[in-house]
Amino acid sequence: MSGGQPQGPVQAQDHDPSAEPEPGFCSATCTDKKAGRAQIAKPDLKTSDLFITCNLPKRFEHPHWFNGYGCQVSKQHPFYRTSASEYGWYPPGYYSVPTVFFPAGQRFTNALSAAGMYRNYSLNTGMDQT
Q: Tell me: the pLDDT tens digits for 74-109?
């Protein structure tokens, strides 16, 4: 600090309840209800709002719908957490979901369901274990 008054500890300023709140300001008791309602009424952000997308299902358009990930529900003690759990700890975000979706065809599954599951009819020559 150059040549000015000595800097002491910063004092917390008292909150002036008569001061006008700024537009969009929200605290524990919301003083600007109109701005608060406008914020709540805003539609949720979608992946297609941020990126050019092609043929995305709704689960990728709205990644904030994903739930059940470790950071959301884990009651496990951090000491016992493995490094493998790091991969699924956080839910996907707007920047980690795919922007293009190519669904797999169902031709193999349809043929398998029509023919039935494979069954081995060969002769059993093994000894029974006692």
A: 777 888 888 877 777 888 888 888 888 888 889 988
Domain count along the chain? 1
- Scan for tokens 């759990």, then name that residue: 85
**Distance between CA atoms of 70 and 83, rounded to whole angstroms?**
13
Two tokens at 81?
A: 């957490």
Q: How far, in whole angstroms, is CA 112 from its chain's centroid?
A: 36
φ/ψ (deg, to 5) at 16: -95, 105
* Confidence (pTM): 0.41
CA–CA dist 97, 49 (Å, integer) = 13
Residue 63 in domain: yes
63 secondary structure, DSSP code? G
Exposed/middle/buried for residue 32 (C-beta within 10 Å: 0-12, 13-18, 19+): middle
Question: What is the domain range of residue 52?
Answer: 40-99
CA distance to 7, 9, 15, 92, per residue, from 12 (Å): 14, 10, 9, 40
